[in-house]
Automatic annotation (TrEMBL):
<dbReference type="InterPro" id="IPR017996">
    <property type="entry name" value="MRJP/yellow-related"/>
</dbReference>
<feature type="signal peptide">
    <location>
        <begin position="1"/>
        <end position="16"/>
    </location>
</feature>
<dbReference type="Pfam" id="PF03022">
    <property type="entry name" value="MRJP"/>
</dbReference>
<comment type="similarity">
    <text>Belongs to the major royal jelly protein family.</text>
</comment>
<dbReference type="InterPro" id="IPR011042">
    <property type="entry name" value="6-blade_b-propeller_TolB-like"/>
</dbReference>
<keyword id="KW-0964">Secreted</keyword>
<keyword id="KW-0732">Signal</keyword>
<protein>
    <submittedName>
        <fullName>Uncharacterized protein</fullName>
    </submittedName>
</protein>
Length: 409
């Protein structure tokens, strides 16, 4: 009888939690140097300090899985990278994208090339085979805070790996001594590639920068909903206590209507509330900057206690918003046809060992959910143990991920 009960318990547990496929698992990351001498040279001159390289953002495009390594500390060998998905190698070395030179900080009088990436947190691939990168332009954030270049949107053609455009954010897009750009979300209708918009949340300056590809122009929006909730900045993650003040952080795009407009879901990181706004409010500069637009922003609801979220992503087919759960060590979901409250939020994955700090998630064109976890609070404020697996990337089909949760239709 006891055996049966145990068995039933186990089966029940398996049914509730989706089975994640572990695709990558690193103790520390290495890079694909052209040869051993180049690697040894980088170690010798401090351009590669292994323990300072923390994978943070991810994106899948065809056979490439992009992995960003922001320059939190010195000794980051390359910030924008990818790993091949076939053949998969769980401990693969990162390959700089588009190449090594673009990921090398210029020395002395050297000029920064237009395709260069100083430091990036998150990137986005669009349906027009372009990779959109938000380059913060700052190296050694926690140490010397070296400003190498202004923050910029850098767009690559993924089919040729060539630069399409580099756009420096304007001084008026930024807030002095406060701005922090760690995410970029691209709004484009398939086939209408020239009408794309990028949304770049400013988590430190509590603003949202919108960039129009057609107009090659940007504007900065303010709203009280872009600020953090003072009650929700106190978190314990992987045994580390943190008090954060990160404002608007994750945005996710609902399906486009006949006019190409979407519901844009957004939240601050230090908050448990989710908000939304019609993209038509963001995309038209006149409307975006009109104070009368204030009331067009809506409160969707509250995700529940300890539901602070970094990145989020919307799956149109299931009509489900997926979002990281930083304090609960996992990923959660909400079906947008239902009221947003704690009862209607489901956990699609939870693991107090392997999903400590789910830093980024994406859904690829085949509707796979990708999850990157990296123990970032311990990396920032303590020290990671190089004998343990610290960085993981998982994959699961969206339909499988939400099965048995309140998010299933
Ligand atoms: C996987 O990648 C690591 C790091 O580059 C390398 O040392 C190892 O040989 C690779 N394994 C296989 C089977 O290719
Ligand atoms: C976009 O605008 C920037 C600055 O205003 C300018 O330097 C750049 O040449 C423009 N790019 C295109 C493709 O028009
Ligand atoms: C967005 O607003 C426009 C203009 O008011 C409206 O036509 C459209 O239906 C709205 N779309 C969504 C997705 O809410
Ligand atoms: C933006 O909205 C204003 C006010 O509704 C309108 O007059 C203008 O034509 C719109 N601009 C664009 C580029 O659609
Ligand atoms: C969800 O809502 C959308 C639009 O509001 C509707 O088309 C769809 O049928 C709904 N789906 C479910 C499963 O209720």
């Amino acid at each position: 009888m006891l055996k049966l009960a145990l068995l039933a318990g186990l089966v029940g547990f398996c049914a509730a939690a989706a089975k994640l496929e572990e695709v990558f698992a690193w103790k520390e990351v290495s890079y694909a140097w052209p040869n051993d001498e180049a690697r040894n040279e980088a170690v010798k001159n401090g351009e590669y300090i292994r323990e300072n390289n923390l994978p943070l953002g991810l994106e899948r495009w065809k056979d490439k899985l992009f992995v960003t390594v922001p320059r939190w500390k010195s000794g980051v060998a390359s910030s924008l990278n990818y790993v091949p998905l076939s053949p998969a190698n769980k401990t693969a070395s990162l390959i700089p994208y588009p190449d090594w030179k673009a990921n090398t900080i210029p020395k002395g009088e050297e000029k920064l090339e237009d395709n260069a990436i100083v430091s990036t947190f998150r990137v986005s691939a669009d349906s027009c085979d372009r990779l959109w990168v938000i380059d913060t332009g700052v190296a050694d954030i926690l140490g010397g805070y070296k400003i190498i270049a202004p923050p910029a949107i850098v767009i690559f053609d993924l089919t040729t790996d060539k630069l399409i455009r580099r756009y420096n954010l304007k001084p008026e897009d930024q807030k002095a001594d406060a701005s922090f750009f760690a995410n970029i979300i691209v709004d484009v209708i398939p086939g209408k590639c020239d009408e794309a918009y990028a949304y770049i949340p400013d988590l430190g300056g509590y603003g949202l920068v919108v960039y129009s590809y057609a107009e090659n122009d940007s504007w900065r929006i303010k709203h009280n909903y872009f600020h953090f909730d003072p009650i929700q900045g106190d978190m314990t993650i992987g045994g580390v206590d943190i008090q954060w003040t990160d404002g608007i952080f994750g945005l996710a795009l609902g399906p486009a209507d006949e006019t190409g407009d979407r519901t844009v879901y957004f939240h601050a990181l230090a908050s448990t509330t989710e908000f939304s706004v019609n993209s038509s409010v963001l995309k038209n500069k006149t409307i975006a900057l009109d104070s009368l637009s204030y009331d067009l922003y809506k409160i969707e609801g509250n995700k529940g206690e300890k539901s602070q979220t970094s990145a989020s992503v919307f799956d149109e087919k299931a009509n489900v918003l997926l979002f990281t759960q930083l304090v609960k060590d996992g990923v959660a979901c909400w079906n947008a046809n239902k009221t947003l409250n704690a009862q209607n939020v489901g956990m699609v994955a939870e693991d107090h060992e392997n999903l400590i700090f789910t830093n980024d998630i994406k859904v690829d064109s085949e509707r796979n959910l990708w999850i990157l976890s990296d123990k970032m609070p311990a990396f920032l404020y303590k020290k990671l143990n190089p004998e343990e697996i610290n960085y993981r990337i998982y994959k699961v089909a969206v339909d499988e991920a939400i099965r048995g949760t309140p998010c299933e239709a």
